Amino acid sequence: MDIKSPFTTPASGRSIPVTPAPVGPTLIDIDHVDFFYGASQALHDINLKIEEKKVTAFIGPSGCGKSTLLRCLNRMNDLIDGTRVANGQIKIRGIDIYDRSVDVIELRKRVGMVFQKSNPFPKSIYENITYGLRLQGRSSKSDLDAVVEKSLRGAALWDEVKDRLHTSGLGLSGGQQQRLCIARAIAVEPEVILMDEPCSALDPIATVKVEELIQELRTKFTIVIVTHNMQQAARCSDKTAFFYMGKLIEFADTRAIFMNPANAQTEAYVSGRFG
Amino acid sequence: METPRPTSQSDFLVNKKRIRVFGLSFDDAIKIFFGGNAVVSIIVLALITYFLFQEGIGFFGQNHRNLLTYRQAGLEYVDFIRTQESGHIALTRYLSDLRLRQYNHYIAEQKMSPAAANEALAKFDEFAAQYGDAVEPIRGMVSDLTEQATAIKTKFLIAEDKKTERQQLLVAGKIDEAAAVKIEAVDFAAELHLLTGILPVYKQTSAEFAKKLDAALAVAPKLSTPELMVRLDRFNQLTHDYLATFPATARSLETWDYTRAVPWYQAISAFLFGREWLTASFWQDWYGIVPLLMGSVMVSLVALVIAVPLGVGAAIYINQIASAQEQRIIKPSIEFISAFPSVVLGFFGIAVLGQSLRWLSQQSWLAWVPGFPFSERLNILTAGCLLALIAVPTIFTLAEDALQNVPKAFKEASFALGATRLQTIIKIVVPASLSGIISAVLLGLGRVIGETMVVLLCAGNRIAIPDFTAGLAVVTQPVHTMTGIIAQEMGEVVRGSIHYRALFVVGIVLFFLSLGINFIAQKIVRKYRISIG
Ligand SMILES: Nc1ncnc2c1ncn2[C@@H]1O[C@H](COP(=O)(O)OP(=O)(O)O)[C@@H](O)[C@H]1O
Ligand SMILES: [Mg+2]
B441, B445, B438: which is closest to B531 by C-alpha? Predict the structure, then answer.
């Protein structure tokens, strides 16, 4: 692959301009975090500031802790027995989300998530999108209808499914399912959307669609995306964090990471020499 | 001579070391072994089905003859009048209930002594006696007719027996002896003449009976509370309804004709819809499956009502909520229940559960529960509770499997949208596994409907359709079941008799019921696999 021009989409040949962004306000402050699965430490002293309304990409070889860190941000790791954040803090707008006073349910409403394998519920498209709203007790039909349309439009899926909102979400193609999951996540209007390798199970054309979608979503949401695919990180993100063996190796503007990495390991990884 | 080794180029493909027995390789033998097992089980199933049908199917012919005899020997005729008599019996029972209520009222509310209460009821007793005695002439008539009809039937059956005997002798080649067998043919027309001849007398007696009832009602004394008066009015109404049926009875008697054929389908419908299972009776045997079916259904229903919440609830708890430690303890415990031999559960039911339930029902603070207190310690409830114990492990295990099959991704998605654990269970996990849970319940039903030992020991074995007018209290009545009746009676019946064959037909019904339940359960499971994808 051609490392020198990582900002060109191979599929479309389009150039996505990435201006060296001015440093924006910090939304999520990951402060010296150690994380354990039982006795085994998966994250070592992670220190990272995620800026508001930016796309931050986590890259690194398999097993380096990208998903683990991502799932710390909405406390999904709480669901696994024996996990703990041993040291450090994760603050969102200055609030420590692991503090005892924090309501996890509320946190997860504000920090949405899209998974590696698309996972629509075995319900209709409409029910999939309104699920989160109904949890919050919203049940007026006009309200729900409006949100369904808005979310599906936001996920660039409206035109494809508007005539079959009440058919099963499992009947959609893989790419459509993943966009349905994105629509479901944005329906509850979170501030942050976490995406864990959202395109890894999709074909190239569906991948392009999701990437274009991410470009549109960045104006409204703060996005953190884990990816295996370095072009994807290069194309979609403003900032990139490179992890290796549970440690944050380098965190900088995406352009800098790919054009001019400061660290030798980063350089080796982005140029495809290992990983 | 040594065979010349083949020398062609392709020969290296043939494995010369392969061992062959009777021209079969090892692979072939394995295939035949497993294929053979499958074939054997199918053959066994087919043989069982064939055997059931072969033994059972003759029932319908025999039952048809049974019904025909019922008509030809005039039993049907007598039963018209007997029905009239039993209608009166039901009414007198209502009357004694009324007396008891009035008596209790006198004792409890008016603080009378028992003697005074009986004194106050003297008028009522007079009325009741007059009402009760009115039936005597009819009753006498029924008992005379019963004797006559029985005599005709016996004569006919003896003749039939002789016929078979002669037939057997003929088959054995003993022609002389066969000729010596005397067969007294029954002349139904002549015999029945005695029976039907009483019609004018009956009509007169019946009219007098009606008059006496009316007269008795006229002297009915007033009762002491409005509530009791309402009951007395109701009794008046019932008596009038009863009197209104008299003309119909007379008409049935007039139009009755012993030569009328019994349609063939009645042999089947009398079995499927027959409300009586009455065997070895001096009068007429009835093989109606309804009371047994109802018994089985009621006991199974009670079992499911108890076992479904327990089994499904435990499955949800274990699968979704419990810690690993709890899982390690609870799961094997529940599955261990199924290791109890059902006869041991039956002992337990008789000695402990039935006793305790009855004791519980007699506690005054529980008197508000429908059906409490009850005196039969073996009843639908006792058997149902024990069957629930048998159904719980099945339902639990299968429902837990169904829950386990719900992809973890659904749960994660739900949590990530801000759902609590309970919301996730109710809105995602249970709906996604619902068809699996339903089929678990159905298989639990299949398990209990076929269970024999527990119901035989604990259901009370009274062959009667439960009285549903009792509302929920119906569960405190004893019943008999399809499985129970087979186990109880199969050992005593003569092979090839109508009773023996009737039990086989009950077995066939049971077989198809279980087959149907399992079939539906499997259908549902298959659909559920597809819907989860
Ligand atoms: N549920 C878990 N229990 C124990 N260890 C885990 C679990 N999930 C991940 N790990 C370990 O944590 C490390 C980081 O995993 P992960 O965050 O999934 O990596 P990545 O997403 O970068 O491929 C790996 O060594 C992995 O084996
Ligand atoms: Mg991962």
Answer: B438
Best mutation target among A76, A129, A135, A182 (most B Cβ atoms within 10 Å) is A135
> Could you give the C-alpha distances from B197 to B145, B208, B253, in angstroms and in order?
11, 19, 11
State in Å: Cα A62 to ligand 1 middle.
9
Q: Name chain B contacts of A130, Cβ cutoff 8 Å.
A: none
- Other C-beta atoms closer than 10 Å to the C-beta of B134 total 20
Q: For residues A14 and A8, is the Cβ–Cβ distance under 8 A?
A: yes
pLDDT tens for A61-78 read: 999 999 999 999 999 999
DSSP A197: S
* pTM of the shown model: 0.80
Give the rounded distance of the alpha carbon of B36 from its chain centre: 39
Using one digit for the tens of pLDDT, what is the confidence trace for A223-243? 999 998 888 999 989 999 999
Residue B416's pLDDT band (cuts 50, 70, 90): very high
User: Listing from the earlier edge strand, what are the strands of the sheet with A95-96?
Assistant: A95-96, A83-92, A26-37, A40-51, A247-253, A239-244, A55-59, A222-226, A192-196, A111-114
- Name A35's bridge partners: A43, A85
3-state secondary structure of B174: coil
The full 3-state SS of B41-87, as one line of letters, equals: HHHHHHHHHHHHHHHHCHHHHHHHHHHHHHHHCCHHHHHHHHHHHHH
Task: Return the closest-CA partner of residue B445 out of B314, B299, B340, B347.
Answer: B299
Q: What is the mean pLDDT of chain A?
A: 87
- Is B423 near chain A, with CB under 8 Å? yes
Residue A8 bridge partners (DSSP): A15
